[in-house]
Write a structure and sequence with these properties.
299 residues, alpha+beta, Formiminotransferase-cyclodeaminase, Chain B, domain 1, Alpha-Beta Plaits, 2 domains, 7-stranded mixed sheet
Length: 299
């Protein structure tokens, strides 16, 4: 039996602008999983963000086709003109990153991103903006510079229109492993979460490789500090958590719970096990090497 380490594996973690209709999310995931060679690792949705994250992996050709079909199915089922959620978005298939895993290099992810972008425009008429390592323009390297109203004011990298009338645009890229980790606070006051985000994110003088924003979530009636950890190896994760806890206390509240979106590498868990064990529902299956091995054993 081949192990994950006998293969050159690419992971893809597209974010879709649908988090309230489980049937739509399941159809998108099914369109991806039906591609031969794709290992669907899991997917999860958030009602308030109105967003779902699908995680799958495999060899490059399979993952490439799975991503393209997922974008197409989202364009068929999701109309951004009727969308409302607290998370920023520009597309039905909003962000489509390719991530190198075992045996792969970042350049492999870049090649997948560029090929996917060309096919997304050709098959569905959805324009594409490339970001991170796949960026063709220096100003588009950072996702937040592209994913905003009016994009960056320049034409897309691929496509003859700025956005599709219903499906918007796809922001497609390649990056190393990113960890999405959120902390819910015991207060509904979004201003508190925003103040903590300013304290901890790199762009405003906080921790390196940390992106953060503060939000109000209606369903649990709480404020959330939503984080993307873009280089876990260089972030003191326990210190980051303690800073959020101290700032929350200083501002008159506390941490209610934390959550992990998607999967983490074994190396990240080994670096700070307590940080991840705090996340609601965390177990060893959230370590991506374990999940891939489970899927291979089941085949």
């Amino acid at each position: 039996m081949r192990t994950p380490y006998d293969r050159t594996l690419i992971e893809c973690v597209p974010n879709f602008s649908e988090g309230r209709d489980p049937g739509v999310v399941a159809e998108i995931a099914r369109a991806i999983a039906q591609v031969a060679g794709v290992a669907l690792l899991g997917y999860e949705s958030d009602h308030d963000h109105h967003r779902s994250v699908v995680t799958f992996a495999g060899e490059a050709e399979a993952v490439l086709e799975g991503a393209i079909r997922g974008v197409g199915k989202a364009a068929e089922l999701v109309d951004l003109r009727e969308h409302a959620g607290v998370h920023p978005r520009v597309g039905a298939a909003d962000v489509v990153p390719f991530i190198p895993l075992a045996g792969a290099k970042l350049a492999d992810g870049v090649a997948c991103a560029h090929r996917a972008g060309a096919e997304i425009w050709r098959r569905f008429g959805i324009p594409v903006y490339f970001y991170e390592a796949a960026a063709l323009q220096p100003g588009r390297k950072r996702l937040e510079k592209v994913r905003r109203i009016g994009f960056d004011g320049m034409p897309p990298d691929i496509g003859g229109v700025a956005e599709h009338p219903a499906a918007g645009a796809a922001v497609v890229g390649a990056r190393n492993f990113l960890i999405a980790y959120n902390i819910n606070l015991a207060t509904p006051d979004a201003a508190v979460a925003k103040a903590i985000a300013v304290k901890i994110r790199e762009s405003t003088g906080g921790f390196p490789f940390v992106k953060a924003m503060g939000l109000y979530l209606k369903t649990p009636d709480c404020a959330q500090v939503s984080m993307n950890l873009t280089n876990f190896a260089e972030i003191p994760l326990d210190a980051l958590y303690d800073t959020v806890r101290r700032e929350a206390q200083r501002l008159g509240t506390s941490i209610a719970e934390s959550e992990l979106i998607g999967f983490i590498p074994q190396a990240a868990y080994e670096k700070a096990p307590a940080f991840f064990r705090r996340a609601r529902g965390f177990d060893d299956s959230r370590i991506i090497e374990n999940r891939i091995a489970q899927l291979l054993r089941s085949r």
